[in-house]
Design brief:
By secondary structure, the protein is an all-alpha fold. Helices cover 76% and strands 0% of the residues. The chain contains nine helices and no strands. The protein has helices spanning 2-40, 50-72, 82-111, 116-146, 153-175, 182-206, 215-242, 256-259, 268-299. The radius of gyration is 22 Å and the shape is flat. The relative contact order is 0.11.
């Protein structure tokens, strides 16, 4: 009986390992192919598309390091939950690849209306979609297999907050004004402060470094602060970017980069608008986070919603 039980357990572990390796192989292949197709045909002409290139390289590197760690058995020697790390990294990679699959074709399918470059753009977009799906499958599969509390609603919201901030930074790389208006500097500071606070909180609880502190209070305070800061950014960014009385450009046609044909598909004005929209989106996410924390606080329990050390 003991021998049969051990054999069954070993077989189950081998099955889990094989599925994990297969997912990692598909992730490496799809991100590598997306990168290869873009660089081979030089279908790269707009600065904002550097986000897509970063995404594919970052996801490939993270997946490769994860695969190496699993092959060498290093995950058993780490002082944190390997399953939680897999869920977190796969969740971010799924969102990153999805954003690349949206941003990249929006620009380049218009720049390359026909011919071989267009086909490569479509193929790279398809591989980015495949990568996003495989990472999402890994998240769902790992959650179902382990029952980790990091799969909770609040854990997802925390990841979305950081992800949206990363996309905002990608658009800010070309839209930050040269005149450095104090109001716009404040908006950039808001994005940085909230991103850093979220990242530090995630790393702290990933390492289980401060379990003695009641994170429900800290998390509530952080969410309130983020809502207040993002509210000011949601008011000031559109006001100083699109209102002529405050030095903004209310019309898209008044932006020189929108007139120039090579960059007119996603010019600086469009990117500033994207930052404004993403600011509103992240504010809604923080509000949802705050509402859930308030409900949890009233009930006096986070069971079923979120456990501090999980996200």
């Amino acid at each position: 009986m003991t021998i049969m039980s051990s054999t069954s357990l070993s077989s189950g572990l081998d099955s889990v390992t094989n599925k994990s390796y297969l997912l990692h192989f598909l992730q490496l292949l799809s991100t590598c192919m997306a990168f290869f197709l873009v660089t081979r045909e030089s279908t790269w002409s707009v600065d904002i598309s550097n986000w897509s290139m970063f995404v594919w390289c970052f996801c490939f590197a993270v997946t490769l390091l994860t695969l190496i760690a699993e092959l060498c058995g290093l995950q058993d020697k780490l002082h944190f939950s390997w399953d939680r790390f897999l869920i977190t990294s796969a969740c971010y990679c799924a969102l990153f690849c999805l954003s690349a699959a949206i941003i990249y074709p929006i620009i380049h399918l218009q720049i390359f209306p026909d011919g071989s470059p267009r086909h490569h753009v479509i193929a790279a977009t398809a591989f980015s979609c495949i990568a996003s799906v495989t990472y999402a499958v890994e998240v769902v599969w790992t959650c179902a297999r382990t029952g980790e509390s990091s799969c909770s609603l609040l854990g997802l919201l925390k990841r979305l907050e950081i992800f949206v901030a990363c996309v905002i930074f990608a658009f800010l790389s070309n839209t930050y004004p040269s005149e450095r208006q104090p109001a716009l500097v404040w908006c950039v500071a808001v994005y940085c402060i909230c991103f850093i606070l979220g990242a530090v909180a995630m790393l702290r609880h990933r390492c289980d470094c401060d379990e003695s502190l009641p994170y429900s209070c800290l998390g509530f305070g952080q969410s309130v602060l983020a809502v207040l800061l993002y509210t000011t950014a949601l008011v000031l960014w559109p006001l100083y970017q699109f209102n002529g009385d405050f030095g903004g450009q209310p019309q898209r046609s008044s932006e020189l980069s929108c007139i120039d044909e090579p960059t007119s598909y996603l010019c600086v004005w469009d990117q500033r608008l994207a930052v404004a929209i993403l600011t509103a989106v992240n504010l809604l996410i923080y509000v949802a986070d705050l509402v859930i924390l308030t409900v949890v606080s009233d009930r006096g329990s986070t069971q079923g919603l979120w456990i501090p050390s999980s996200y």
